[in-house]
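pasting for the record
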Amino acid sequence: MATPSRSSGFEPPPSTAAGLEAAATASSAAAAAGSAAADAMDPVAAVTAGGVPPIPPSLSAAVAQAAASCSVALRSGATRLFVEVDTTAGDSTYTMLKNSLPITRMLADALQEDLAAVAEGGASATPWDPKAVLVILPDAGAAALAARDWGPAAWYTVAGLETATVTPTTAAVVLVCPRASEVTGMERLVEASLEREADPMPFIIVNPDVVDMGVTGLSLNARQLRERVIRRFDTVYCLRTFDWGVLLRAAPGPWTVWRDAPEAASGFDLVAQREARPSSDDIIDIFNATEGPGGDGRRGVLPPD
């Protein structure tokens, strides 16, 4: 397999902090020990313990990890959360939105009790109303189709971004796959949620696709968007897969970088841990500092359940 380079086209999301130490200084011995510890731990138990969880073996396991990270964050008082689950292992003919719908549904179901606890324990002590949770899709057509497909099992309200509003009685917002073209609507909802600082509500964005991050940095518009909106959110879960490995973060644990390792029980070796999100260049440096990834480049991180 070819060693990754800066011109390989790999463009992971932006770093949330500058000044990461050089990847070459990562201790291979510590990484190997961390990999073995991660392999030995239950995927969800490791998240709640604040440790390094293993790579999830399926989509449902990834969502379970994401739900555990969201639960820890909500119980600690955080309310504005990003969840990023790679959808590229799904049907390539489907859009990110289509592939993100089952993720959103599983995540919302897993978080129902946590969302209820936040609503009932807030400053207004609002009685729990499941329909006050808004699952918002980019447009009315997608919302109507999702509401039809999910049927009575959807205990929340499904709405389109154009008409969705945040009110004093809104219990939570789950916004799915906002794109650059939906930035205005997203900002409107975020600003409305900020007006409730005395009684904050959970605002979870699943698979945001609003900033195109390149190796050299952000454009002026992207920097402005980050300042107005993105910096207000914490990425509590991130799973990104690429030909030679995986970027995984499950809060409150660290950001971790893994390389393909067919000889390992899990199929991956942990090669680096970071407290802040690695940039695209950082990740390339990390991989180039290792002995080189194994395997034949074929992905299979999130097989269908």
